[in-house]
Amino acid sequence: LRYKPDLIWSDGDWEAPDSYWNSTSFLAWLYNDSPVKDSVVVNDRWGRGCSCHHGGFYNCADKYRPGTLPDHKWEMCSSLDKLSWGYRSNLSLAEVMDEMSMIEELVQTVSLGGNYLLNVGPTKEGVIAPIFQERLLALGRWLDTNGEAIYESQPWRVQMENTTDTVWYTSKGPVVFAIFLLWPRDSFLHLSSPIPSPGTQVTLLGYAGTLKWEKSPGKGMLITLPYMLPSPLPPQSGWAVKLEGVQ
């Protein structure tokens, strides 16, 4: 009543059935009489056995990854600390998710139509540890360049390349985005799923100009990526090509 939340994320449902939590009565009030009844969204943790069955969107389980495109709204819940959802003073660097893993989880989740929830365990004073700040800022920088392929996107007719799990697709209307997690050694990106047309145009997000492409001998298209100078720094993870005029 006081805060009028847009989302209520319930947890701990496995401890008892929904009758113990009085979930159905609360949800009936929430959707029929509460001040947020027309706008609120809830997850699926409202009693033992509810997960993946009831809710505005499904969490199903922590770090849940569906193998195919779900037919219900869903969310992938992950944590930067691989071993905990709360703060741990004895955390080691090896137990923190790296930048590539974050981007990979985000891309796979969005390609399958999901929302990505990335957890950080703050200290008792409410401070986010520097290592977590660094990871979140890195993800933000990646989204500054590639966010067009993520924000307000929809799943495409194909979610990932059949030949690899390193190329994932999203779409916005007629525009298709192919997000590749590994840079090809020969700098040629082969996409077998898009069907190009004479007017097809290809661009790389964050790179000026258009990219050359040709039809593949089998099916799909072969895209010539820009030459990348060798760098002593670890390579960035994840790039997105924007495909216009494909089916």
TrEMBL record:
Name of encoding gene: Fuca1
Subcellular location field: Lysosome
GO cellular component, one term: lysosome
InterPro entries according to UniProt: FUC_metazoa-typ, Fucosidase_C, GH, Glyco_hydro_29, Glyco_hydro_29_CS, Glyco_hydro_29_N, Glyco_hydro_b
Catalysed reaction, written as an equation: a neolactoside IV(2)-alpha-Fuc-nLc4Cer(d18:0) + H2O = a neolactoside nLc4Cer(d18:0) + L-fucose; a neolactoside IV(2)-alpha-Fuc-nLc4Cer(d18:1(4E)) + H2O = a neolactoside nLc4Cer(d18:1(4E)) + L-fucose
Keywords carried by this UniProt record: Glycoprotein, Glycosidase, Hydrolase, Lipid metabolism, Lysosome, Signal
GO BP term, pick one: glycoside catabolic process
Protein's name in the database: Tissue alpha-L-fucosidase
Domain Alpha-L-fucosidase C-terminal: 159-244
UniProt domain Glycoside hydrolase family 29 N-terminal: residue ranges: 2-148
Family: Belongs to the glycosyl hydrolase 29 family.
Enzyme class, spelled out: hydrolase
Family annotation (SMART domains): Alpha_L_fucos
Protein purpose: Alpha-L-fucosidase is responsible for hydrolyzing the alpha-1,6-linked fucose joined to the reducing-end N-acetylglucosamine of the carbohydrate moieties of glycoproteins.
MF (Gene Ontology): alpha-L-fucosidase activity
Record's subunit section: Homotetramer.
One Pfam family it belongs to: Alpha_L_fucos
Origin species: Mohoua ochrocephala
EC number(s) from the headed UniProt entry: 3.2.1.51
